[in-house]
Structures are given as C-alpha cells and as structure tokens.
UniProtKB/TrEMBL annotation:
The gene is rplC. Part of the 50S ribosomal subunit. Forms a cluster with proteins L14 and L19. PROSITE patterns: RIBOSOMAL_L3. GO terms for biological process: translation. This is Large ribosomal subunit protein uL3.
Length: 212
C-alpha cells in the first residue's frame, strides 16, 4: 500500500466539461492529515505511517488513543489510520499530509464503510431469483429454497448464501479517477460513486491496479 489520505464524504454533484458533457462526481473533504506515528522495519517489523484528521473533544477520546495523541504531541482527531509502506518513510511525527500527494487525472482506490441496509433476504442480498408468483405457490415467493443436501454431508455447508445483515461493511472501489482538486476548499472531486454514507470517513490511496 502507498501513502494516502483520510477524508470525509460530503455527497455527490456533477461537473460539466467544455463540450457540455455531465460528469457525476463524489465530493470528499480532506482536512490536513496529522502524522501521529512513524513505524519502521527495525523497531516495529514493518514500515508504515499512522495519521489522524479532524478535531475531537478530549472527553470523546478513549485512554489508549489519548495516550498516542499525547505522545505524538498532536491534537486529538476522530480516529487513527495506518498506511503501510514498502520502505521506511522520512516523515516526522507532527507533520501534515496535504493534497499535494494527489493530482487531477490520477487513478485511485477509495475505501469506506458501505451503507447499512438492515436484515435482508436472499433476493435483495444476493440477487436470487424469485419462485413462481402464480397459482400453487403459497408463501414461498421470496424463499431461498433448499439449503442442504441428503444424509451426506447431512448439514448446511459454511458460507451458504442466506438471509442476514446487509451492508455496513468495508468496501473498496478501485480505479476511480480524480476529476478536480480544490486546494482552497480542501475538496477532492472523484468521478463516479464511492462507498459510504454522507459524513462517513473515506480513505484514498493510489490505485494498485490499472485498467488494461
């Protein structure tokens, strides 16, 4: 993984090109990311940079995080994120990461927590096909159908697609494009939709794969 930035999703809007084409974009506000810890191969076993962003009251921070912020000498943020690196970094604790590490037109990966949709059946959750909605079918229109086998193995196999909690899990969308960076407003406009609800935390990193 490469060095990235942590921001907050503001929503979606659109931009118009000179030809009049409408481009849907996601708006991510990225405030300065403060370095709280620098890990290296010799002392920690791997290379990484730990950052925080935003402002939080001290009463809202648990003792473990409060100790890290105090040791780093930085103001408390709304969380701690870590970017693993291939080699040791020259960054210093207390320094800021700005939008300069990204540029317009660059391909990125965006990670966030998807919107929770509560308890869902297999049709909504896994796009299963409905049973016949005609005569002879009673109360089984959206049922999952058979879930097991005969006496061998005589059980439901692990990982079977069944109804359950949908959403509210970590999702990464790859190979998105940065359309525009507004340094004055600390905003990044990303082409297309990104995971997460409004005001949720978003992690942006350089793309690890590129489209052929």
């Amino acid at each position: 993984m490469s060095l990235g930035l942590v921001g907050r999703k503001c929503g979606m809007t659109r931009l118009f090109t000179e030809e009049g084409e409408s481009i849907p974009v996601s708006v991510v506000q990225i405030l300065p990311n403060r370095v709280t810890r620098v890990l290296n191969e010799q002392s920690d076993g791997y290379s990484a940079v730990q950052v925080t962003t935003g402002d939080v009251k001290n009463s809202r921070v648990n003792k473990a995080e409060a100790g890290q912020f105090k040791k780093a000498g930085v103001e408390a943020g709304r969380g701690l994120w870590e970017f693993r690196l291939e080699e040791d970094s020259d960054l210093e604790v207390g320094s800021d990461l700005s939008l300069d590490i990204f540029e317009a037109g660059q391909k990125i990966d965006v990670r966030g927590k998807s919107i929770g949709k509560g308890y869902a059946g297999v049709i909504k959750r896994y796009n299963f096909q409905m049973q016949d909605a005609t005569h002879g079918n009673s109360l089984s229109h959206r049922a999952p159908g058979s879930i097991g086998q005969c006496q061998t193995p005589g059980r439901v196999l692990k990982g079977k697609k069944m109804s359950g909690h949908m959403g509210d899990e970590r999702v990464t969308t790859q190979n998105l494009e940065i359309v525009k960076i507004d340094t004055d407003k600390s905003v990044v406009l990303i082409k297309g939709a990104i995971p997460g609800s409004k005001n949720s935390d978003i992690v942006i990193t350089p793309a690890i794969k590129t489209n052929k």
